[in-house]
């Protein structure tokens, strides 16, 4: 690489951890919606709030890549990046369209618990687009990022998401990722956090996720789906 050759390069293992969480939760969502009894607005609100949080996390995750990752890869990655980044961008557009369809249907379903089948179908579309995209990103983009993006630049992706997320939501969001995360990767991610977060997050985040999962999934240990690449 050019002027950055002396810098530490990106440790992309946190992306696999994030993908595992997205893969798991978006794969479970369509059936969660279908299982809500029509008219049971109390349950629809629980599942709907969970879906809204996931959609927000996904939107910020992809927004960060659009702003901070694709331009750097295109600038530095030569023919390899030029061959794959446009596909990534096109997939993001398709995912954003599917995401918009879900977001449009969600509020009314949360209030009334009516129209769940239409929402579940929209979530299936989103899940399929997302799974395809993450698999390609893991096989093609992450190896490029390891060679062409510095560790400092890579951290900006996570910082982008955190800066635009409600602060109260961050521990739960981290718990979502930690659930299938490698403890070593969790430790590496937290290494740059302030000391209180480094000490407390490994305790608080899993507890918050267990409580949340019990409310949403009916169990503190929902099925693990995992990453396609380790």
UniProtKB/TrEMBL annotation:
One Pfam family recorded for the sequence: Hemerythrin
Domain of life: Bacteria
Domain Hemerythrin-like: 12-145
Protein name: Hemerythrin HHE cation binding domain-containing protein
Species of the source: Micromonospora saelicesensis
